[in-house]
Amino acid sequence: MKSGSKVDRSAAPDTLLGAGDVLRYPRAFSRSECETLIELAGTQEKFRDQFRDYGEVRGASTICWLPTAKAPAWCVTRVLDLFARAARSFDFDVSGPLEEFKLMEYRRGNRVAWHVDCGGGPTRTRKLTMTVLMSEPGAFAGGALTLAGSAQ
Question: CA-based angle 82:83:85, to the nearest 5?
Fold first, then answer.
């Protein structure tokens, strides 16, 4: 499927939160692009949430990994473009291979406890994380992404 969306991706980020630590790009993916990715996720092997049980409701109901080689070319190009723009905003030198996409599905009551998206092993050099909401915002209640040090 071709992207076909006519979203202006050259615009500056909509919001810079906190002390310059969060960029927000509304409508970075079109509705049809999100539908395509959700359909593609349905064809991938599913795993139970791999977050630790923090004594509360666990994280995502299911996750799947989408290798960049299996992702649509328009998706990989878009993610690389968004990461490049973010890296420039933070004055980061970002190079190296793009990680596999982690697609997560949440059900009622799921949540992820506070955590950091970098650390040892394969994430030791991670500088940027991207979160994309692919559901219609009116299709659920809750689900707010909260970040340490941000007002939203």
Answer: 65
Ramachandran category for residue 20: left, alpha or beta (phi over 0 → left; psi -120 to 50 → alpha)? left
Separation CA 80–CA 50 (nearest Å):
26
Q: Across the 152 residues of the chain, what is the mean pLDDT of every consecutive 10-residue run? A: 41 47 84 92 81 52 87 93 87 81 81 72 77 81 68 46
Maximal CA-CA distance, the chain: 44
Instruction: Give this prediction's pTM.
Output: 0.73
Cα separation, 57 vs 72, in Å, equals 33
Residue bearing tokens 């990680």? 99
- What local confidence, expressed as pLDDT, does residue 137 receive? 77
The amino acid present at 66, given as its one-letter code, is L
Residues 6+ apart with CB under 8 A from 31: 136
Here the tokens at position 117 are 């998206």
Cβ atoms of residues 13 and 89 within 8 Å: yes
Residues 6+ apart with CB under 8 A from 8: none
| Structural contact between residues 127 and 94, judged by C-beta atoms closer than 8 angstroms | yes
